[in-house]
Write a structure and sequence with these properties.
Elements: H1 7-25, H2 35-45, H3 49-55, H4 60-71, H5 75-102, H6 104-116, H7 118-123, H8 130-147, H9 154-167, H10 176-186, H11 191-206, H12 213-218, H13 220-231, H14 245-256, H15 259-267, H16 269-284, H17 290-311, H18 321-340, H19 348-371, H20 390-393, H21 404-413, E1 420-425, H22 430-437, E2 444-449, H23 454-465, E3 470-475, H24 477-486, E4 488-490, E5 494-498, E6 504-507, E7 513-515, E8 521-527, E9 532-535, E10 538-543, E11 548-554, E12 559-568, E13 577-582, E14 585-590, E15 593-600, E16 606-609, E17 628-633, H25 648-657, E18 662-667, H26 670-676, E19 682-687, H27 691-700, E20 706-711, H28 717-722, E21 725-726, E22 730-734, E23 739-744, E24 749-750, E25 757-764, E26 769-771, E27 774-779, E28 784-790, E29 794-804, E30 814-820, E31 823-829, E32 832-841, E33 844-852, E34 871-880
Parallel strand pairs: 1-2, 1-3, 14-19, 18-19, 18-20
Antiparallel strand pairs: 3-6, 4-7, 5-6, 8-11, 9-10, 10-17, 11-16, 12-15, 12-17, 13-14, 13-16, 20-23, 21-24, 22-23, 25-28, 26-27, 27-34, 28-33, 29-32, 29-34, 30-31, 30-33
Length: 882
Amino acid sequence: MIKEANSKTLAAVFLIAALAISFRVFNLGILGPFIDESIYIERAAMANFTSEVTVGFKVLGYALFYPTAHFADNALTATRMFIALLGAGTAIGIFFATRSLAGTASGMVAGIIWALMPFVVFHDRLAIHDPIICFFLAWALFFFSISGSAKTPVPAVAGGVALGLAVITKVTAMVGLFFIFFILMAQRAQPRRVLRLALIAIPSAMVPLLIVLPKALANADVYMDFLHMFIGGGDDSGSAEPLTLKRFWEERLILNSSLLYSRLSIFNGGAFIGLMALTGIWSVAKPTRIKTCLWLAFAVSASAYIVIFKGWYSRYYLPGLLPLAMLMGVALAEWLAAIRANWVNANRLKTVTASSLIAILLAGTGYQWISSGLDFSRSPHPLNVPDDDKFQYHHGWPSGVGSMETLERLKQLAAVPEKISVTVIDGGYATRIFPLMTRDINNIVWSVEPVTCQRDAAAALERIATASGKRFLLANNDSIKTFNASVTLVPMPKLIFEQKRGYKIFDISQVESFRFGDSTSVVTSVESPNGVEYVNGVENFWIGGEATKFSAIASGAEIIPITLELFPAPGVSGRAATKLSVSGEAVLAPRQGPATFYYKTGGAYTLEPLDKPNTRNPNIADTRPMILGARVLRGVADARPWAPEPDAGLEKVLREVSGKPHAIYYRQWPPTHDLLTHHKNLRPMAITLKPEDAAVEILKSARDGSLLLSWNKFDGYGDAIASLISPAPRLLFKSASGARLYSFDTQAWLKNEKSGVVVTSINNENGVEEWNGATAFWLNSTGAEMEILAKRAGVVELSAEILIGASAPNRASAGLKISSGGAETQITLAPGKNSIARLKVAAGKNVITLRPVDAPVAPAPGMDDKRVMLMGVKGPSFRYIK
């Protein structure tokens, strides 16, 4: 219920505030710096709030720290002072929350407990975010405590907003959702009213999140960050790719939901167990008085506090202590009242139990203060810990982070005239600790490399390779395992320092090369205009529109291979080959299957489509320009240090053939390209196709004269293509370096192709499909182009199965115009298998146009396919008749 303020209330507030402030600001400036403070103040001073809002949940803390971090002469002391004042405000909030539930005496005791509790006081003297969330949660508790008896929903809304502000300060404040339940249960309100207040409070808590939700919906990293911080990412959380919503729900949430209990019970153990006890007591014992219920819950949670805090502690406990302080206030007030009323006449079991628990807690608290010698420059640790770096750096950091031994060894390494390069390999907080701790050492050049997968390791090596001076690697046990699983350094780095808690320093100055599994090169990143999707940790993207850019690294190589598994885009006409630009070089790539593209090291690694995506199926919902799909393959091609040796004989032959036009094809290889570009009349085209597809492409140019240049030092590519063609290509030149130059006869043809006509591509606005294993397509008013390769000049017959489409005005027959070589024929076709037309063709490449005559009509209602479909052509084939 809502209690009116009086002189006793004001006196209690003044006393609590005086105690809280005096304990927090005394000797505030001599408290040794905690590494988190440096990070928070540095981030706040340089904060771009627009960016902070869009990348994660730690938004409000940096905004609150900005004035003191940016403008104060002593940012650390000023920010600590601000936190100390917030700590006093938290104690006052606890006083009002407990007072509204259990009376002024209980509220005063609870406020004093928070004001003096050593664990709380220490953290309220640090420039960190956890005291901020405690401030908001304390006042959320107060607003919830008065919402049950309020006549308006304003307190419930205020409590929800305060809870939301805590959450956008730090995700651990999500424990506050249980506070709503805690307070409403304690008020013994009607179930319907409890539900109504919860329905008001929880949406109100979402109001502050509106500043991050719009970006969160589009940025999977926010979901991933939320999962790792609140639910937990499991052992593989560091190597998780950016999550899609599908993966968020189906994988992470399901796999890690079991960690929800452990996160809450570990980080907020006393409070969580207290809430569970409160629920059980309320449901089973059904006490008649609120104070009795709260007192029993305190007995359970206080026991949990003693057990949990004996083993390990963290500042993440801080918000969980809020309801515990309230419960302690109620219990201690009850105990004092029983003593005052003659404890013999009271419930002896209750009084003895409470006395024992409170005596243990007070003794433990007193021991904390006495063991620290009442020295406010040290942490009042609940255990008797030796005076080492554990006091300063133990608060929730990975084992040994901030070790003074490691820091001293780094200082020794830096005690040389020249600069040294130190690379930190760690996926955790250590990526920031040591660079910050050594900012005053000018001789160390830091590179922070969180390594969670092979791509990260490669990116780290890329920067390590360019570092100057002596080079060192700093890692802990876990991170070095991840690094070693991704890359092998040759020779193995020398271990020069190992710290007892797991940190190691390696001398990598003598490292000359490295391998990624079975490969000496790896793609470190992909940037595609159509976006990059991750499937099982592999980059997938659509080639189309602007260029796709790669970052890659190779060991001791002049040539970097990037191998892609290519697959056709939905609704795009099928071609045996697609023309791509590989860093400015035209390359024919397969429409489906693996293709390796070679790049010179140090150049621009780009892949750009040269074919226009103008023959796509408009019925496909995805409107991005897509010609090919691609996924990055790893470990299938070695980077190569080799380049073709200068060969005077090859140069002579190339000069001779360049006197007249020739199309010259070669296995895509940059040094070869350099060899060809200065020869007059040669039209070079690199090919990464399968030999059978490459043979078709070469035969297209055979009537103008076509050549194939192959370096059989690497593969039998040229011989494989030559073996498919009859008559056999003429070997013009063979050099000791492995170069082979073939010349193809103008009448050459594929050995295993009997019809004499090959369909090489179909360009159709409605796309090309496969019906029962046969190539098929629907014609609209624009029509389609079929490109064919003919063995010789003559007359061929075109046959196909005809279907009348939903857009045709007459379902019994349809007209079709056929054009080839400047001649045009118009025919009428009925559904079924048809001999469509006889056409004159020239030897080599020919283009045949099919265009419906009829104007389209609206299709019947209810059709899912909205394309204009006048006529279907299934299984087109050709045969010579002359």
